[in-house]
Amino acid sequence: MTLLTQSENLSTKNAFMRLTCGVGMTAFGIGRISRNPNCTRGRMMIIFGAMKTAEGILKYCPTKAMMSSTMQSAVDSSMTSAFGGQAASIIPNIDQLMKDFAGGNMNSKNSDSQNSDSKNQSNDQKKNNNNSQASSSTT
Predict the structure, then answer these.
(1) pLDDT per residue as tens digits for the range 92-130
(2) Partner of 54 at 20 to 30 A CA spacing, among 26, 81, 101, 124?
(3) How many CB atoms within 10 Å of residue 53?
(4) Is 121 helix (H, G, I), strand (E, B) or coil?
């Protein structure tokens, strides 16, 4: 027996939300079917709810995996055609930018703001030291 292993492509928060919404959709669909056994909308809610529940448990969304691979191949082909085959040096940078953008990686911006905050604090300390020295020399 061979087990298929897929890499996770959902974050923990995203998986939890899919699990929660999937259970809710399934319960809502069961409620609709219990009132009207021929309800197509209730059956569809159960099917989609079960699908979202499974995605939440496995932390893997096949639709997202298909879309990301399609996007990556589209970007690669357009970069190759746009730069006449010289995209080999550009594509790794674009891959990193896409990962940073998709993951919300803002570390470089945060570190810049932290550096400016520490500079402002050190400037404030210098001003306070100069003011205290000036007041002590006048007395």
Answers:
(1) 666 677 777 776 655 555 545 555 555 555 566 666 666
(2) 101
(3) 19
(4) helix
